[in-house]
Amino acid sequence: FFPQACTIVIFGGAGDLSKRKLIPALYNLALDGLLPTQFAVIGFAIDAMSDEAFREFARDGIERFSRRQLDEEEWREFSEHLFYRQGDFGDAAAYAALKARAEEIEPHFGIGGSRIFYLAIPPSFIETCVFGLREAGLVAPADQDLPFTRLIVEKPIGRDLESARGVNRALQACFAEHQLYRIDHYLGKETVQNILAMRFGNAIFEPLWNSKHIDHVQITVAEAEGVGTRAGYFETAGALRDMVQNHILQLLSLVAMEPPWSMRADVIRDRRLDLLQCLRPMRRHEVDQHVVRAQYASGFFLGKNAPGYRREEGVASDSTTETFVALRLFIDNWRWAGVPIYIRTGKAMPKRVSEVAVQFKAVPHMLFNTDTDHPLEPNVLALRIQPDEGLALRIGTKLPGPKVKIYPVKMDFRYGSTFGDQSPEAYERLLLDVMAGDATLFMRDDAVEASWQWIQPILDAWASSGERWLPEYPAGSWGPIEADRLIHADGYDWRRL
Ligand code: BG6
């Protein structure tokens, strides 16, 4: 797969995602020599802006958010590929003008009309934009190789199963599924892709990767930040929709899927889908038994008093939006039967850390003297997604000395020390893949719907509970006592991270 000559049109080009992630990602790809010389970027949004002003906006984004520093010479060359077109997404004339602008720009760069439309916009605009594109004749026929049209859609895809189906229907009314790239940026993270490399590029893990040897799995995605400036969106979402439905279930699907027989996009996506379809459905009345939701309250954190969620700007003073979720789930298939999977995610936790920890079963017969002060610790394989990316295996070794005492030690691989600190950002990889037409790391319609299907009873149970207060946890703590009870009930504890 090679990136192909194309124009990238960023809907919402003057917005936050464009500035923080997309333009810096494209700039880094250019620095790495990975972009074709035949490319152009058109920012498209309601804000009035000249090409020059858009270039300034892009420069500012790169200076503030790029992985690598701005280099004047590279920037000059890169910036010549950046353009802007103002337009109202609901106005047919704006699409006609966008088309005319693209047709004017493309010949200068030798681009033959292939285009990627990136919808970096609030979800309520998706339908308007895709129909606008279709009506303006901006969508190439699905069976045409060149020039191609591809559409990138950001999460959230819907806010429940029904609305997700609605979004997919609208997308498919205008595009063929193979032209669609639904982004879950977790799939673009190096460490997340390394899960497949680790599982299927080594002979030693796969024979152990099943209920015979694995005791349980814990997935933690903790964020130190509170809701920040995103209350407008987060109030309508909550942690279950924001993190579990997409990022965490995608992570789980890579950790737990069956071996694919090839690395072809649809083979991998089929396996991920299979896994999502094996998640044991929760009935509404079981939700309280398996799922804990909570909200952060004020706390002393990072040397200062942090406000509770209900006191954050833009949050209703009686909000019942959850900022934390912990849950237990099971995968009903041959490989995972009976292995509990624990998931927790939250905002305003003690630190930003994401990991998948696979705990193996105890040895079948204990040869060594252990005491309560020095129990034999189980083997744990921890896949550290971020920060401090890497992989650690805890094993028991003999403590030097005359007695036979087993002591846990860690075999530790760190990306930083092995490969340097320059792993590409998720968006770099994902944009490159769309330019190359590789959909492996994107979500197919059926997978999006399968994960909503599993989430839906939890949403329903919460909606019907009528609860006015959620359990609380102090900002800067690991979650509410209820989350501890959930895992203690099975005789385990959350990992100390
Ligand atoms: C986004 C969520 O998808 O992922 C945010 O909407 C969250 O709420 C973010 O903070 C986390 O991404 P990362 O890459 O910082 O772990």
UniProtKB/TrEMBL annotation:
Domain Glucose-6-phosphate dehydrogenase NAD-binding stretches: 9-194
PROSITE patterns linked: G6P_DEHYDROGENASE (PS00069)
Keywords, comma-separated and alphabetical: Carbohydrate metabolism, Glucose metabolism, NADP, Oxidoreductase
EC number per UniProt: 1.1.1.49
List of residues binding substrate: H185, K189, E223, D242, K347
GO cellular component: cytosol
Biological process per Gene Ontology, one example term: pentose-phosphate shunt, oxidative branch
Pfam assignment, any one: G6PD_C
Class in the EC hierarchy, top level: oxidoreductase
Known pathway: Carbohydrate degradation; pentose phosphate pathway; D-ribulose 5-phosphate from D-glucose 6-phosphate (oxidative stage): step 1/3
Record-listed NADP(+) binding positions: D88, F89, K155
Catalytic residue positions: H247
GO molecular function list: glucose-6-phosphate dehydrogenase activity; NADP binding
Limits of the Glucose-6-phosphate dehydrogenase C-terminal domain: 196-495
Classification via InterPro entries: G6P_DH (IPR001282), G6P_DH_AS (IPR019796), G6P_DH_C (IPR022675), G6P_DH_NAD-bd (IPR022674), NAD(P)-bd_dom_sf (IPR036291)
Reactions performed catalytically: D-glucose 6-phosphate + NADP(+) = 6-phospho-D-glucono-1,5-lactone + NADPH + H(+)
Functional description taken from the UniProt entry: Catalyzes the oxidation of glucose 6-phosphate to 6-phosphogluconolactone.
Family: Belongs to the glucose-6-phosphate dehydrogenase family.
Protein name according to UniProt: Glucose-6-phosphate 1-dehydrogenase
Organism: Thiorhodococcus drewsii AZ1
Gene assigned in the entry: zwf
